[in-house]
Amino acid sequence: MRADVLIIGGGIAGASAGYFLAAHRKVVLVEREDGFGYHSTGRSAAEWTAVHYLGLMRSVVVFGKPFFDAPPAGFASVPLCRARGNIMFAPPGEEQVAEEFLRHAGPLNPRLREISAARAVEIVPFLRPEVLARALYDPDNGEIDVDALHQGFLRGMRGAGATTLSGVEFHGAERRAGVWHARVGSEVIEAPLLVNAAGAWAETVAARAGVAGLGLEPRRRTALTFDPGIDVRGVPPVDDMSTGFYFKSNATTLMVSPGDATPSPPCDAQPEEIDVAIAVDTFERYTTLEVRRLASRWAGLRTFARDEQPVAGFAADEPGFFWLAGQGGGGIMSSPALGELAATLLRGAPWPARATELGLEPAVLGPARLAAGAGAPA
Ligand SMILES: Cc1cc2nc3c(=O)[nH]c(=O)nc-3n(C[C@H](O)[C@H](O)[C@H](O)COP(=O)(O)OP(=O)(O)OC[C@H]3O[C@@H](n4cnc5c(N)ncnc54)[C@H](O)[C@@H]3O)c2cc1C
Questions:
Q1: Atom 19 in ligand 1: which residue has the minimum CA distance?
Q2: pTM exceeding 0.70
Q3: Which of the four CATH numbers 3.30.1330.10, 3.50.50.60, 1.10.540.10, 3.40.50.2300 does domain 5-67+145-216+307-370 have?
Q4: Any alpha helices (H) in 215-371, and if so which ranges?
């Protein structure tokens, strides 16, 4: 089989790049698992936020916002993102975290504001006011319909002629005369461009193609849900700014995460008892509710570059190899932007002026910034 672009990984990253490329190039996407979205993409908290991130990731998320607000006709039959609001708080003794956050994020987000503990409890009545030494509110935080977004990308790329193969692993590739010969499942796919959208396995895929790694690190994050026995629909995400602990409603249940970020090899991540226990204990200390029985628990991997910013660009040592990785905790919300910008680079199309206005340039997004000695972007 031949293609113009071979994409490795059928999570949200690979699907988004395929979506933006498929009208212009012959695209083949391969996913090792039987279904698309089995790993990180199917395990997220589905949040959209322009305040949790600063620097490159914030610009990327802002660049992609119009796609969530007004996706192309027929992309999805439901809204891709609904505003939920977000309470962020600092517990007693940690007030400086809120102060610092306001200093950095406040000027960028005029709608972010400080609220009283009483106001926070009005919004989420089971919060204990005594833990809210400082509380901030972001009205723009949204909840993404991850499945609608992911399926929209996959459906769109197939509709434009792309091939998506699941249950097919990329084993390795050699580049000869400008063309990759990629061993995929039991066949060889030839393509001049190879896109590494393998999430936690991005380093493995690079090694299998003989490309130097970037030192990306997968980190495990745990989540659980339980039925609180009261109506929690509409409870916005509530985040402890000092530890990363958060909870939010997930339809009729509450989802809780301890905000863990434990380095892990790439794998089918599973929750550790200790992280579940920390989540439950913290939730019960911060609220008046009790966690009686868990409805579900899971863990997923968030993969970070050294500077904790996403990477989208051609490998310095191999011009036919494109990195689309390191999205950390923002791979869903950043996917329309990174998919579009990755496709722009892969096509050699003109760089969008709006991206430049937001400080997004190919050199800033690309992997060269991670080379030894290179400084982190602002
Ligand atoms: C608990 C948790 C909460 C999160 N919350 C949010 C949130 O609120 N908002 C947000 O925007 N993001 C969030 N994230 C982050 C987000 O889920 C990830 O950034 C995103 O899913 C990464 O997408 P991906 O396509 O790069 O990775 P994945 O979804 O993991 O896809 C990579 C795919 O590559 C495949 N693959 C790997 N190696 C090979 C190979 N050799 N051959 C073929 N296929 C291969 C894998 O099977 C996998 O399916 C969260 C993550 C976690 C774990």
A1: 331
A2: yes
A3: 3.50.50.60
A4: 273-286, 335-347, 353-357, 362-365
